[in-house]
Every structure is written in C-alpha cells, then in structure tokens.
Design a protein that fits this description.
Elements: E1 13-14, E2 34-35, H1 43-73, H2 80-98, H3 100-109, H4 115-149, H5 158-181, E3 183-190, E4 195-202, H6 210-243, H7 252-287, H8 297-309, H9 311-322, H10 324-334, E5 340-343, E6 349-351, H11 352-360
Parallel strand pairs: 1-2
Antiparallel strand pairs: 3-4, 5-6
Helix pairs in contact: 1-2, 1-3, 1-9, 2-4, 2-5, 2-9, 4-5, 4-6, 4-7, 6-7, 7-8, 7-9, 9-10
Main location: membrane
GO molecular function: neuropeptide binding; neuropeptide Y receptor activity
Membrane topology: Multi-pass membrane protein
Amino acid sequence: MGPSDPANSTNDITHGGGEDHSLGNDSMDPHKPVFVDDITKHLSVQIALITAYSLIILLGLVGNALVIYMVFLYRNMRTVTNYFIANLALADLMVDTMCLPFTLAYTLLDEWKFGAVMCHMVPYAQALSVHVSVLTLTVIALERYRCIVFHLGQRLTRCASFLIIGLTWAFAAILAGPLAIFREYRYEEIPYINLRIAVCSEKWPHGTNRDAIIYSLSMLLLQYVFPLGIISYAYVCIWVKLKNHVSPSNRNDNINRRKKTTKMLALVVVVFAVCWLPFHVFQLASDLDLILKFKEYKLLYTLFHIVAMCSTFTNPLLYGWMNKNYRNGFLMFFRCEHKPDTIHPEGSFRTRSLRGLIANGQNDGQPVTAV
C-alpha cells in the first residue's frame, strides 16, 4: 500500500445510475469512482484543497530544510540522534517536492499530465519516503532503548549511523518497489462523452483485486502496526527506566535532558501515528471494496491524505517547541545572525568571529568573555 497514489481509473465512471465498468480495484486511487456531480469540482472545494496542499508544501520545505541545515552546520548538533532526525527531514522533503504537487494537480484535473516515467516515480517516491520515516523512527527508538535501558554509554559512531541510514533507504526501496513495477500509463476512452484522457493507475498481475489487497495488508503491518508496536514498547521501557532512575545530583541535568529528548521523540511518533491512522483505515476499507460506492469517495480520500501529509511539517514544529537547540537555531536563521559553530541551549551563541577575537585577545580594546 503506497501512501499516495494519485491514480485515476476512469473505468469507474458512473453516469446517471448507469453500469459500473470497473476493471478492478486500484488500491491507491483517489478518483475511484468518478461521479458526474464530483464535489471536488466545486470552486470553493478546489480553492480549499489548493490552499491546504500549498501550506503543507511550504511549511514542509522550510521546516525540514532548516532541520537539515542546522544538523550539518552546527557542530554540537552533529549527534547520532540528530543525524536520524535529519534523515526524517530528508524523507519529508522528498514528499513535499516529488509527490504533493503532482497529487494536487491530478486531484484537480482528473487526468495524468506528467507522462509515463512520473506515473511510476511519484507513487514510488512517496511510498519510499514513508517507509524511510517509519524505519528511522524505529531505529531511533531502538538506539535510545539500547543506551538508556541497558546503560550502554557507547553510542553509535558517525559511520555506523550513516550505514544504518543507507540500509533504511535500501530496505525502503525494496518495500516500495511494487508500486513502481505494477503500474500502467495509458489513454482511456470515454465514448458517451467523446473524451480521451491519460490515466495512471495500478495494474497488478492476474488483473484481480487479490494482489492489491495482499500488498495493502502487508504494508499496513510492515509500515504501521509492527513498527509502532516496537517503538511503543521501547519508549515505555525508556520512560519507566528514567522515571525510576536514581542518580547523584551531578547527573540530574543529564537525566532531565534525556527525559525531555525522549518525550520529544515519543511525541513525534504519536503525531505520525495519529496523522496516518485515518488514511490507513480508509485505504484498507477501499481495498476491501467497502466504501468505493460512496458519493464523496474522492473527497474523503483527499481529506485523509491531507491529514496524513501534515506529518511532513509537524516534526520541525515539535523540535522548535520542545528542544532549545533547534529553537535557538531557528531564531538565529530568521534573524540573519552570524553562523555559529555551536548553539548553546540557554540561548547564547559562539560565533566564528567571536572565537577569532578571543584568539587575538581583541575586541575594540575591551576584554572578550566566551559564553
């Protein structure tokens, strides 16, 4: 089950109670069936959809680009956890740039205008990004579980973290592969209204619904149920461990920092799960042919897809709200201040120019104090 497949199976056009000429269930088809009185054709609805998708794209681009920028620019942000967070941001950026604009255009036009190559690439890219996000969230939870619950002081090295990130992309590429392979770009004739339009839809072997259902159920388990189960178990164990932990007074700050970071990362997972749950439930019901005859099927699909896509910009907001380093870095960027080597949690910044003045012992005749 790919999270966004803007396929438009025009075989399922219902016209005034006429015969349904369905060729089978396209499991990711937001336009199935297409009705003459399609509510998404109303101007007010289209304006609302354009506004919603545009805001998601804008916020996602700005927020996730800033996260990546901070992690690789600021020295004390280059930690294993932050590398994984940057990987999450990269996956969300892929959705914002390669998927959402095409999805919006296909939803509004009811015709695939972007050719055969993009017909295969767009649903694949979004499925790939969602798999990467889920796998990365799982890796973050397991790494913190390993270090906190078992008191392993040695964190993953930078090389090891980059290797794990590469493996998550490779595994995600395999899981998303069927959405690129079993795909068809064709022209569909609609005789009774003398129309010929380009269609991009799933085409599974045997021409039946069975393969689509099997893939959807498999992805529901691998992309949602199993990962969230593992993540939930890890964070519950971490929270219990930190809550009951007794340490010397000089380690209280470290324990509090771990608690805050764990709370932030757990909230990221909760937001992801809440955003994607309605879409997964709706998609499964669609694959089982339980809701395809609803008059507002296309609108419902689009609304649930918008809710799911909100997860692409919420993470930077959570980081800025719950983490001082990210918050201070965001503020520095928007204030156009000097690029720092290090962000200090209390809000002070050590810049390259300040370090140079300290080394030279000069600051317009005044002593310089490092902060």
